[in-house]
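Researcher: Good morning. I'm working through a list of sequences from a screen, and I'd like to move beyond sequence-only analysis. For each chain I'm collecting a predicted structure so we can compare shapes side by side. This is the next one on the list. No need for commentary yet; just the structure.
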Amino acid sequence: MCRVYPSKIAGMVAEVFEYPFDLAKVRLQSQVLDSAARFEGPLDCLLQTWRNEGVRGLYRGLPVPIFGSMVETAGIFVTYSQLQSAILWCTSDVSGAHVRQLTLPELGLAAAGSGFLTSFIITPIELIKCKMQVQMLAAPPKVPVFTTSPPLFIHATTLVTRHRRRTVSQRLRNLPGPFAIISNVVRTSGIKGLWVGHVGTVIRETGGTAALFASKEFFASLLLARRTQISPTPLKPHSTFIETTRDNTDLLPWESALSGALAGAIYRVSLYPADTVKSAIQTAEELRPPDTFTPSSNVSRSHASFWETAKAMYKARGVRGLYAGCGMTVARAIPSSAIVFLVYDGLNQRFA
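Model: Good morning. C-alpha cells for this chain:
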C-alpha cells in the first residue's frame, strides 16, 4: 500500500497540470480524417478553445481523467513492482542466498507487462474522456437538400447559427456527462463498446510503458553513477526507485525529475501513432456521424478496425497526420513526467 498512495497523488497532480494540452492533442488527432482541419496547430487549438468555450472548455471532462489517473498511475506502479518481484523469483537461486539485480531488459519486460494489464482499465476511461473533449466540436446533423436529384446531405449549419446566441455555459450544461455517455455506449454497443479503440491502447501502453520505465532506470543509474563515481547499474530489483537509506545512493529531487522528464519524452514519442489512431476511433461517432435520414437498420454499429483507421489516416495526411499534436504532447510530457516521478520518489522515500 505504501506505493499506491504516492502514485495516486503523483498522477492527480500531473493530470491537472497537463489536461488542457491533452484536450488539444485529442482534438488535433481527431481532425485528421476530416475534409478540412478545424485547427492549424496546438496553439491555435488552445486559443480557439479559450475564446469559444472559456476555462470550462479547456477543462471539459477533467473529473474523468482525475479518477483515471489515480487508477492508471497506481496500477502501473504497483503491477510494475509486482512483476519485477515475479521475474526475480523465477530467475533467482532456489536457496535465495544471493539476491541479484534485474537487468535492463528484465525491467523493460516487467514494465511492458504492467502496461498491458493496465490498458484494460485505461481504455474505458479514455473513451469517455475523449468523447467529452470533442463534444463542443460535434458535427451538426446532416439534412437533405432537395434542390438536387438525388438529394445531397449537408451539415445543417443554419441550425447551429440559430443557437449561437446561447451562452457557452448553457451549451456545456446541456452536454451529456460521463454517466450519460457510459449509458449510451452500453445501450448502443453493449459492454464491449467501452473498449472501443483498445488495440491502440494496448500497443501504446505495452511498448510505451516499457520505454518509460527502462529509460527512467537507465537515466537514473547514470545520474547516480555520476554522483557516486560507480559504474552504471540498474536500481534495486524490488522497486523503480532507490529505497531510503543513510548513504548517498538516494535519488536527489532533481535527479528524479530529470530522469523522469527524459523518460516521459521517450514514452510519448515511441508509439505516438497508436494513440492518434485510438483517438480517431473513439471520437468517430461524435465527429463523423451518419446521415440524419439514414434508416437505423442501415446504420452500422461496428467501428472501423485499428488497421483500417490507421491506413485511412495515413492516406489522408501521411506520417504527419499520425503524429498530429506530437510536439505539444512531448513538451507537456517532460514537466508532467518530472512531476510524477518527483512526487512519487519523494513520498516513497519519506513514507517507505
